[in-house]
Amino acid sequence: MIRQVLTTLAFALLPAALSAQAPPAASANPSTDSVRVQFGIIKADVAKTAAKVPEELFSFKPTPEVRSIGQLLGHVADSQFSICAAAAGEQAPQTGIEKSMTTKAELTKAVNDSNTYCDKVIAAMDDKKGMEVIKFFFGPTPRLNVLTFNIAHSFEHYGNLVTYMRLKGIVPPSSEPPAK
């Protein structure tokens, strides 16, 4: 008898308990929201790298054949301007950063400016617009996939930067303990 009462009570209270813990309403733009979150991760790591690495290491190359830290940061800024502009259907607002800038101040600003520009492009996007197919490097590509390519490309070069930082005894931003 007690078992029946408890079972009845549990089933009676279950809907109230579940509604109290209901997840937030689903986003109207889950794909765009995902791009925004993923870009937020890589833009923070690259910007923190530009800020963290001392200026005297911006010319560091592990071997003569590869880009320096500064050139990698310039390349990321150039590519972010170019790729995000393609997703927006615009001309890149800035180019030639890798070839023309060498100082920490210039490159840090360029990285931050490219992050801000990509944020603006992503903010103007929704899932419907993001599924519009445009011409891109590899052929017809949905706008959101152009932006995910930017994220992958930036992560690729952040991986290079991580190796360079480790070679110089610097803990990369993505490996730092979380702020308390």
- Biggest sheet details: 2 strands, antiparallel
Q: Helix coverage percent of residues?
A: 55-70%
CATH class: Mainly Alpha
Note the overall shape. Answer: globular
Going across the biggest sheet, name each strand in turn: 1-2
What is the radius of gyration?
A: 23 Å
Instruction: Write down the overall mean pLDDT.
Output: 89
Question: Total number of helical segments?
Answer: 7
CATH architecture level-2 label: Up-down Bundle
Q: What is the tally of beta strands?
A: 2
> Can you tell me the CATH superfamily?
dinb family like domain
Strand content: under 5%
First and last CA, distance: 52 Å
Q: Provide the CATH topology.
A: Four Helix Bundle (Hemerythrin (Met), subunit A)
Number of domains: 1
Overview of this protein structure:
This protein is mostly helical. The protein has one domain: dinb family like domain (Four Helix Bundle (Hemerythrin (Met), subunit A)). The chain is 64% helix and 4% strand. It contains 7 helices and 2 strands, in the order H-H-H-H-H-H-E-E-H. The chain has helices at 2-20, 30-52, 69-88, 97-100, 104-123, 127-130, 143-167; strands at 133-136, 139-142. It has a two-stranded antiparallel ribbon. Strand 1 and strand 2 form a beta hairpin. Helix 2 (30-52) runs antiparallel to helix 5, helix 2 (30-52) packs parallel to helix 7 (143-167) and helix 3 (69-88) packs antiparallel against helix 7 (143-167). The protein is globular. The N and C termini lie far apart (52 Å). The model is unreliable at 1-23 (pLDDT under 50).
